[in-house]
Amino acid sequence: MGESVDLDVLWSQLEATDYVWVAIFIGVASAPFFSAWKQKTSLALAMILSTMLIMFLRFFLDTINIFGFEEIHLFAMIPALATEPDQFHRFITAAWLHSNWLHVLSNIIVIGLVGVPLEQRLGGKRWLAVYFLGLLGGNIAWVAAHPNSFVPALGASGAAFGLLGAYMACWPNDEVEFPLLFFIRPWPIWIIVAVRLGLEIYQMYSIEAGTAGSTNIAHLAHVGGFFLAYALARPIAKGAPSSLDSITKTGMSSGLESSAESIRKQAREKMGSLDNDPWMEAGKPLQAEAARILERLRAEGDELETRQAWLEELAEQTICPICEGEIFTEMNGEICRLKCSLSNVHIKWP
Questions:
Q1: How far is the C-alpha of 53 from the C-alpha of 40, rounded, in Å?
Q2: Fewest CB within 10 angstroms: 2, 54, 120, 316, which?
């Protein structure tokens, strides 16, 4: 989506205070992803929070109107400038700028309702890959069609349509709760795509045929984002927590449960073996209560929660067999392991 603006501010004309605001924008946009990485939570939800925080920051700057910082000039997609090496960032940063609250909310609805279950299917890293594919596809299509335009294009609509494209390519029969055709109910992905993408193509045709008025909506960017993510989603999805073309037909909540179970299954497969233990290998076999806990761990530790519980018990009853320091439990996703508090190389078990 674009709006007219005078290009009187570029990187070469920035002052010191402008660079401070650039750092603030980057920090605000990045903070939710750092938190999601640290807490191992949803990247789709982090994307929503990041996008909303930038919108609130822009609202704050527009309201007080005393700093004179022109974020649209610096971060929006401006086709006539985008091919310059020092302007490549626009292909990414434009996704964090929206023309109004309705614009940002329309994208957040898709990221939330479609992106969250898709992340459960793909896993976080693969989800991020298809999100940025949609973003790049939309911006590349827009630049190719308007190479000499100085009108900025804003928003994450290409990325949102990219999520639809990736979902359509990999799990078209999944049902997700979505507002469509005046109803909010579980719709198969292929129906959502047929309606949303069909409307975009129809509107593009109407504009070209002269039967519709002018618009500030970048329909071509939506279509470009959809098709690039659609074309590359299946190779990206290989090895994802959910197998390609598996079907979830009972709505988003059940889809999340099914995908979550796929993730748990993958985590169980990555749990280490309990057959050998570091104390026996060091010639210091466990005794008394610690030996009893180890025996229970081996008997009952085939599920993620029970293994974690017994490992926590074992950590309280024993010490590192190498340095005799304390040991503690560390979570990596859903997998629990014991580690030495003094050295990472002494023990990492199982």
A1: 20
A2: 316
- CA-nearest of 90, 80, 87, 106 to 139 is 90
Closest residue by Cα to residue 244 from 257, 256, 229, 259: 259
Query: Cα 227 from chain centroid?
Result: 19
Which residue is listed with tokens 């926590």?
312
Q: Tell me: the pLDDT tens digits for 113-165?
A: 999 999 989 999 999 999 999 999 999 999 999 999 988 899 999 999 999 99
Cβ-Cβ contacts under 8 Å for 124 (sequence gap 6 or more):
36, 42, 43
Which sign does the torsion angle of CA 135, 140, 145, 150 carry?
A: positive
Pairs from 277-282 (Cβ < 8 Å, separation ≥ 24): 277/349, 277/350, 278/321, 278/322, 278/347, 278/349, 279/318, 279/321, 281/321, 282/321, 282/322
pLDDT tens digits, 40-99: 889 999 999 999 999 999 999 888 877 778 888 889 999 998 888 888 999 999 999 998
φ/ψ of 143, rounded to 5, equals -65, -40
- Cα–Cα distance for residue pair 259/167, rounded to 1 Å: 13
Its pTM stands at: 0.71
Q: Which amino acid is at 262?
A: S
Q: From CA 331, how far away is CA 45, in angstroms rounded?
A: 21
The string of DSSP codes covering 206-229 is HHHHTSS---S--HHHHHHHHHHH
